[in-house]
Design a protein that fits this description.
The complex is a heterodimer of chains A (63) and B (151). By secondary structure, chain A is mainly alpha-helical. Chain A has a two-stranded antiparallel sheet. The longest helix of chain B has 37 residues. With 151 residues, chain B is mainly alpha-helical. Classes of the chains: A mainly alpha (63), B mainly alpha (151). The interface between A and B is medium-sized, with 14 and 16 residues.
Amino acid sequence: MRNQLRELRATREWSQNDLADKVRVSRQTINALETGKYDPSLPLAFKIARLFKLPIEEVFSDK
Amino acid sequence: MVFMNIATTNSDPEQSHARYATCNRTVAGILWLAAATLTYLISLWLLKHYADWSPGTRVAIAMAPLLPGILYLRTLLKSFWQMDELQRRIQIEGLGLALVGTLVVMTSLNIFTAEGIRLVNYPQGLGIGGVYLTMFILWSIGVSISTFRYR
């Protein structure tokens, strides 16, 4: 699964720590998501999409 | 098993509280584990040196380490429930390796012993201490491998 996390985070000038604090996960989890080493659970994916005010498929895609 | 992450620039009071609680659980876990180990050693010593005590007293002494052990387990479970999904997965992978690895090691040792090849120089095998140690070592390896994979 691919995602736009790094790009979305960069446009808001958030660090990985900032994003991790906002969605209440560890920085390691954000890093693993951004590098594609870990796919989030559905609740976490929704939480992240809601934070960026975007539909989930604009943040995560299976391409 | 518990991650201590106190150093932070974040000023969110809820996050700070969560980190404070994590730190508290770490300290509580270490203390309960130390208490369980100490109580276990004391109970072993008492059972060895006071064999003439009544069976009821001996049972009570033998079961004494259970209380701090259960409290340690409770702290451990609380920490597990507080982890995020990736940390939980890392722990589960570590525990999986520890369980299966210990099973393989113990089965192999038993097979070797049955064939007359003694790899461990203990007449009763590794014993419960050996099982705990094997599990702990394999859990550490498993958690390290998983942490490295998701880094």
